[in-house]
Automatic annotation (TrEMBL):
Entry's Gene Ontology BP terms: carboxylic acid metabolic process
Pfam family, one: ICL
Descriptive protein name: Isocitrate lyase
Cofactor: Mg(2+)
Record has Thylakoid as a keyword: no
InterPro entries assigned: ICL/PEPM, Isocitrate_lyase, Pyrv/PenolPyrv_kinase-like_dom, Pyrv_kinase-like_dom_sf
CDD domains documented for this protein: ICL_PEPM (cd00377)
GO molecular function: isocitrate lyase activity; metal ion binding
Cofactor binding, per record: Can also use Mn(2+) ion.
Annotated positions binding Mg(2+): D183
Amino acid sequence: MTAYQNHIKALTELAGKNPNWAAINPEYAARMRLQNRFKSGLDIARYTAAIMRRDMAEYDQDASRYTQSLGCWHGFIAQQKLIAIKKHQKSTEKRYLYLSGWMIAALRSEFGPLPDQSMHEKTAVPALIGEIYDFLRQADTRELDLLFSALDKARAAGETREETALLAQIEGFQTHVVPIIADIDAGFGNAEATYLLAKKMIEAGACCIQIENQVSDEKQCGHQDGKVTVPHADFLAKINAVRYAFLELGVDDGVIVARTDSLGAGLTKQIAVSEKPGDLGDQYNRFLDCDEIHPAELQNGEVLISRDGKLLRPKRLASGLFQFQKGSGEDRCVLDCITSLQNGADMIWIETEKPHIGQIKGMLDRIREVVPNAKLVYNNSPSFNWTLNFRQQVFDAWQAEGRDLAAYQRDALMSAEYDETELGKVADAKIQSFQRDASRDAGVFHHLITLPTYHTAALSTDMLSRGYFGSDAMLAYVKGVQRQEIRRGIACVKHQNMAGSDIGDNHKEYFAGVAALKASGKDNTMHQF
């Protein structure tokens, strides 16, 4: 007996015990149960956490089984992404969602567009998680509703083979609900603030929380200058806070991604507390850029540290921030990652300044000397000029091989004139295989793009606006949008159906029978599609 049939049987028995429920159709109620599989955000968090843990274990056995996601700034965008994945890839397996703090700041703050500096309302983060899952659950409801309507039609026509096939599709239905990796920035305050926000994010459905080691009130986008990191003890307290939030809410498999911005961060706000040589505080402080000083040289208000019998003065800026030694970024990243993985984090994220597998692998190899199963989440960032970066990588490799490069100008390789050249094609092939290669060679378990749908929204709007407000007028929409939707089989072309109109019609029939006033009658223009 299928799950669908089990629900019908159980609800038939329940209705039989309540004689005043004569108007309730057990099969309709069973359908509504199947269409609402997840009753709360915590149900989603537990379900998706188990998926991530399984995927992580499979990646440890086979690095070709990496995972991917795109960042989404609205529930509708996330919904359309998962509908497209199911349509084109036939499965949502190994496909996640990324919730970007950058996009919340830029697109979802009540203050209006903001830079990625944790100035947006912290409540916007769990609100977007909840919104995304509302839209994904609605995608489940809609797809199942179409199957149920087709089932009724097959039964009415006496098509038993079609009925059996539809029941099998209902039984094997794959939900649109997938894991979200959710950005909590630097925690929005102290460890208690981090814990409270993490709880709200988990309650909304987040099974994976990503947190970075910047100072909360100085937080900057990972691809901007001016980043300031915190000592390890401060960061580990916030990792602990997130873990406690997961455990309190019963999401025991919750995943924590610890992001280090140390590669591009040359400053720290405070000197770490060190109790003995070689402890974490001492290791952090050894990266400080210092001058040896004699006691007689002391000046008013100076901060000093003692190391290896020497008195040192850390270089301090007018802002009060302390400066790290130049060129120490990679060493600090490696220490950050090892420390986080040894103290509660499940995966690491190294924010880099370019997409270069050799650079990532070099750090990962050092990390895996201490933590053998270390796994990376990697930002395939739109902040990188992918075309120029990879063309220059190919140029440099060919130059090292002694090849003739007279046809190419390294600084001008972004030009379209190189698109069809051998160098351009080799670079494109490397971009195409970057995720596969990085997962095989550099321990990348998850590849994400933080804000792709920000860019796609801008690009598609530009293309439509150019034509619609120009000479093409209405043809710009018809040819560039609607005709493409119809021919590509994009379900959203029937926007009334996508918004839930047919679901509502069926519910009206459940509730009121033949007296239901439906919106999907003969005069509904959606029948044109």
